[in-house]
Amino acid sequence: MADASRRVDLAAAIGFVVAHGDEVDRARLAYLRNGAAPDPELLALVEAGQLAGAGWPGRQGGTVASVDATCFRFAELDDLGALNRPPARQALDWLAVTQRPDGSWEEDPALADEAPPWARPGDPEARLYLTANAAFWLSAAGLTARSGGPLDARVGGAYAGVVTGAANAIAASLREDGTWPSYLVTGWLGAAVLFGQNRFWEAAQIQAVLGERLPDLLAPDVASLACALRRLQVGADDWLLLAAQRRLAEAQRSDGGWASDDAEAFTVHTTLAAIRACRPAVTSSTPAGTA
């Protein structure tokens, strides 16, 4: 049985990122730790490539915005406190207006030949994943925007209506046993969205399934799960979040980092996610976007 008292060594994890990360990685770390504002030139580098009036394409030089690629960019920008900047706001607005009438998202058909397998247009599994992913970032951005000004105070923040439609689509997809017809990542993104909408029963159904799968998950997925729950304000005493943090403590390497299932080059990214997932709870004075 795992040692329930074991904790992630955050000091060692921070040291790993400092030693092995690049300029963007270290800027993300500084913002996560103390809200330090990144250099404007670095932010511009991360924001580069955005299409006019839309999000980001899936490949360099692409001319069609991708839901999946844009959500990936949001994750980088969120770690730099940049979801309130004009590029992210433009992309979020684009995402909101491209929601389908049934509350879902799907990649543009023009991306059929270049979209990755998990985001192919026309694939129901990909559609549910993109719906959970888009709704997650619209939820996160709504909370960040509301904390920065007098925007929509409804559940879901500035994009409340859009997120409500997405939550309905996610909830409608659940089977009686709490499983869902899509990838595992869809589950934790969807659970976070539903929790953020105060739909605690549906969120708990998904969490129960994820809890059963947790012992078999690799570190990057465990970190991603915990980050998603924390970002949409799941409580620090949530049982699944605590279990995920224990799993990360067990998987931490002696050098302070966590192995990636993709390649050694991604260990810094995985380590940053683990830091986000396990760092102490923030206070109300902590800059927006770090919850």
Give the structure's gist in a few sentences.
With 291 residues, this protein is mostly helical. It has helices spanning 10-20, 23-34, 40-47, 67-78, 86-97, 124-148, 160-173, 184-196, 200-213, 219-231, 239-251, 267-278.
Q: How is this structure best described in words?
A:
Helix 2 (23-34) packs parallel to helix 12, helix 6 runs parallel beside helix 8 and helix 8 (184-196) runs antiparallel to helix 9 (200-213). The chain has 291 residues and is an all-alpha fold. It is globular and about 50 Å long. The protein starts with 9 loop residues before the first helix and ends in a 13-residue tail after the last helix. The protein has 12 helices and no strands.
What average pLDDT do the residues reach? 89
Unreliable sequence segments: 1-5, 146-155, 283-291
**Overall spatial form:** globular
Major sheet summary line: none
Distance between the termini: 31 Å
Strand tally, please?
0
Question: How would you describe this structure in keywords?
Answer:
about 290 residues, mainly alpha, about 55% helix, about 0% strand, globular, disordered N terminus, disordered C terminus
Topology:
Elements: H1 10-20, H2 23-34, H3 40-47, H4 67-78, H5 86-97, H6 124-148, H7 160-173, H8 184-196, H9 200-213, H10 219-231, H11 239-251, H12 267-278
Helix pairs in contact: 1-12, 2-12, 4-6, 5-6, 6-7, 6-8, 8-9, 8-10, 10-11, 10-12
